Amino acid sequence: MNARLPDGERERLARAALSRVFEPGDERGGRWIREAGPVELIRRLTGPDGPARALEGMTATRLAGYRLRAVSADPGRDLASVAAVGGRFVCPGDREWPSQLDDLGDARPIGLWVRGRSDLRLWALRSVALVGARACTPYGAHMAGTLAAGLAERGWVVVSGAAFGVDGAAHRGALAAGGATMAVLACGVDVAYPRGHAELIGRIAEQGVVMGELPPSDHPTRTRFILRNRVIAALTRGTVVVEAEYRSGSLVTARNAQRLGRFTMGVPGPATSGLSAGVHELLRGEGVLVTDAAEIAELIGEIGELAPARSGRVLPRDVLDADSARVLDALPWAGVTGSRDVARSAGVSTDEALGRLYELHSLGFVEREGDGWRLTPGRTRDGDVRRGGT
Question: What is the mean pLDDT of the chain?
């Protein structure tokens, strides 16, 4: 490492190199960075064995593996490669670094490779994760897109993993609403994975932010997908799972969110659907059931961001007081009855019953026929017009 470079630039180069040495979430490597510093650590990993072997937990086998990667790392080339696609490398301590990632402790990213013109830290301050099954149902895709659009319209940044299924639907929903979205990749930010989402990832990079822990051109693996989920959980205020089986990576994101003290939410689905089984298990625990963007915003937003009050359909009968409702109930479903019979059934005086019947007549619930009374034809006691003869 060139000693004539400013300290900040030397650390950036060292962290860029270490992002090729350690796998995402390597807590041992994170502890060494914290204790020795990135510049000293890369010096030890590329120098004589003695200083590197002195690191706590280092073994000959581990050192051989780390050294093989360290000596081939070219941070200058990687920084040039990300700059060529309009990107940058954001490190802890930078103004743009999202400090909530520090909650991951030694498992926090060494740095983040980022594409997109927006400020990562500012966008992350008001962000929510929408994750779910890759092989989602049409219901799952619809819910993900609708929730994302609703959140985007409320000024929330939608974060997901750019995968097929729920992830893609969430990104598209936010973009369609003219909102903000961020994609966290399990590969280099210059790699379009999955390939079928190359256009979508390009749109996100143009209109939002694409980020990842892995340096340019690095490929995804099953383990890297799982480890990527901790970043999604830590970056956002809460995680919403739309569809997930029992052994879904989306549930890993939710569990990470719970451990970090973030909000965890789930969208219910059919009880018979295996793709909703994991979500329902989450809801049986500490997850919160949500069905629309307003409910999500109420949970994770500021004071006053309340979802509208939920209530059933207001019926004409709801305007009646208890005595009038009891008189209305005293009338038979069919036929005519006298006011004395109504009074006896309702438990009121004849004069009281007569007064209530005239009130119900003015509201359209009953009709007078001779000296008797009956329910208005076509109406139920609730005041609704009967349909289909029922």
Answer: 91
Rounded to whole angstroms, the Cα distance separating 158 from 313 reads 32
Query: What backbone torsions phi and psi does residue 131 show, to the nearest 5 degrees?
Result: -130, 165
Indicate if the pLDDT at residue 219 is higher than 90: yes
pLDDT digit string (tens) for 152-161? 999 999 999 9
369 three-class SS: strand
pTM over 0.70: yes
Average confidence (pLDDT) over 81-104: 97
Of 185, 161, 183, residue with least CA distance to 24: 185
Radius of gyration of the chain (CA): 31
Question: Helices marked H in the chain — which ranges?
Answer: 7-21, 27-36, 38-46, 49-53, 60-72, 75-84, 120-125, 138-153, 166-176, 198-207, 222-235, 249-259, 277-284, 293-300, 322-330, 339-346, 350-362
Rounded-to-integer distance, Cα 168 and Cα 158, Å: 11
Burial bucket for residue 364 (CB in 10 Å: 0-12, 13-18, 19+): exposed
